[in-house]
Amino acid sequence: MVGREFGNGVRKIIERTGLTQRRIAELLGWQEAKISDLLAGKGGVSEMEVRELLAFCQATVEERSHLIALFLESGEKGWLQFPEDGVPDQVHTLIDLEKSANEITVWSLTLVSGVLQIPEYAYVVTEASPVIEAADVPTVAAARTARAKLLDGSRKFVFYIHEFALRFQVGGVEIWREQLAHLLRVSVRSYVSIRVIPASAGIHAGTTGGFYLMRFPKFPPVVFLDSLNCCLFFDDADTVKVYETTLERLAAVALDEEESRAVIDSILEGF
Predict the structure, then answer these.
(1) CA torsion angle for 80, 85, 87, 89 (degrees, to 10)?
(2) What is the number of structural domains in the chain?
(3) Where would you find the membrane-spanning parts of this chain (predicted)?
(4) Which of 70, 170, 214, 254 is the most buried (most CB within 10 A)?
(5) Closest CA relative to residue 95, chosen from 227, 246, 222
């Protein structure tokens, strides 16, 4: 995961030079495959060579410091990020990963997943955060709402939502009702699957908290977890397998799509 972030950062700097990877390799006396491996996060280069490449491409001091730090962390299993604005679900890494994923599976234990939130619901959730200043709430809420644009047919979505999250009132009754109605509207899209974990299921594999599992056409899957002011990314096979197993167990107790719509509809009718 860190290697991929590092490779993406170097790629942007190379593109800024206007030179091809082949030409840069020639000028540095490298094999072109070395740059290709570096951009793919596969390693195969030393810290000195990374510094040489960044200097040649005229990376700024800030860019060099950031990318060297990523390079040195690339052997770690997980990557912890502390967002500058304290909002984990708005870090550029997550947003970039979501855009490049072809399948996103989300488990939500206490709230409706961010991508599914209507603007009013997102605003109330943002307003309740202890790490977001009141003056920043409108901007952050708008940014969160903008993530709903991801819900298009270019990727597949599977949302597992606990029944408690559906019954948990966020904002006034009208906001709550509209949020549930929005879930019903989205659930009929061919590329979206919403499955409810019923309260009657009791204890289940997802009690430790929500997470994202993102799959990509050319890269290993990535797991994303967030907390109040930081987030974690994992792409090592062992950790990903743990979360894949969790999703398999959630799927075993989740209602199917029609049954899930019926639960949402029954909550709406209860108003």
Answers:
(1) -70
(2) 2
(3) none
(4) 254
(5) 222
Higher pLDDT, 120 or 65: 120
Q: Does residue 44 surpass a pLDDT of 80?
A: no
Residues in the chain, total: 271
The per-type count for the chain, helices as H runs and strands as E runs, is 12, 7
Q: What is the DSSP string of 143-175?
A: HHHHGGGG-STTSEEEEEEEHHHHHS--SSHHH
Alpha carbons 176 and 51: distance in angstroms, whole number = 53
Q: Say which residue the tokens 């009690």 belong to.
A: 207
pTM over 0.70: yes
Pairing type for strands 156-162 and 103-108 reads parallel
- Residue finishing a domain among 28, 54, 76: 76
Q: Quick one: 31 and 160 in the same domain?
A: no
User: What whole-number distance in Å separates Cα of residue 209 and Cα of residue 226?
Assistant: 10
Q: How far apart are CA 196 and CA 251, in angstroms?
A: 9
Give the CATH number, domain containing residue 154. Answer: 3.30.870
Domain boundary among 30, 59, 76: 76
Closest CA to 149 of 99, 187, 97: 99
DSSP state of 60: -
Which domain, by its residues, includes 16? 2-76
Asked if 193 and 209 count as a contact pair (C-beta separation under 8 A), the reply is: no
